[in-house]
Design brief:
alpha/beta; globular
Length: 177
């Protein structure tokens, strides 16, 4: 049996890194040199998608797809969610208004989220601890959504694994890593 989970969020939130930290295969990435405002943040950016696979045992695989963070590649978002069971919204707490970022991505994927599971991972809380996780829960509640929110270091397999275990448990309480 195979499942599909989508990672989304703003540029630099850690989508490519998170998929790389949990994937059991080398990540297929469409990183290209950043040529616009993104170049001020980082040298490369995802332009189509990232792809990895997490094996759960007994022939169960989870396909991991990372969306590009830039809105100009939004057409890929709808394509990548086809057949998806859940979504991870990663938010960089060190950005100017991470709660607005959360709201933007939740609204952008609203139709998908209503039919599927959602977890939120907040990166870079070590460098900028505020807003705290409670603020993210509050914003989700204002949007009419209840979802788990985690502090995540996208480089740490354990952090990403815990977040995905929560997502999988929401989809199938018997699913385990």
């Amino acid at each position: 049996m195979e499942h599909k989970i989508i990672f989304t969020g703003p540029v630099g939130a850690g989508k490519t890194t998170a998929i790389g930290s949990i994937s059991d295969i080398p990540v297929v990435s469409t990183e290209s040199k950043a040529s616009d405002e993104v170049a001020k943040q980082k040298a490369t950016t995802t332009v189509a998608m990232d792809y990895g696979v997490m094996k759960l045992g007994e022939g169960l695989k989870v396909h991991l797809y990372g969306t590009p963070g830039q809105e100009r590649f939004r057409f890929m978002w709808d394509i990548l969610t086809i057949g998806g069971l859940g979504i991870v919204v990663l938010v960089d707490n060190d950005r100017e208004d991470p709660l607005a970022d959360l709201e933007f991505y939740v609204r952008a994927f609203e139709t998908f989220i209503k039919k599927n599971a959602l977890v939120v991972g907040v990166t870079r809380m070590d460098t900028k601890p505020r807003p705290g996780l409670y603020s993210y829960h509050t914003r989700l509640s204002e949007l009419g959504i209840q979802a788990p929110v985690f502090e995540v270091d996208a480089r740490e397999r354990t952090d990403v694994s815990i977040m995905l275990q929560a997502l999988l448990a929401m989809l199938d309480p018997g699913a385990q890593r």
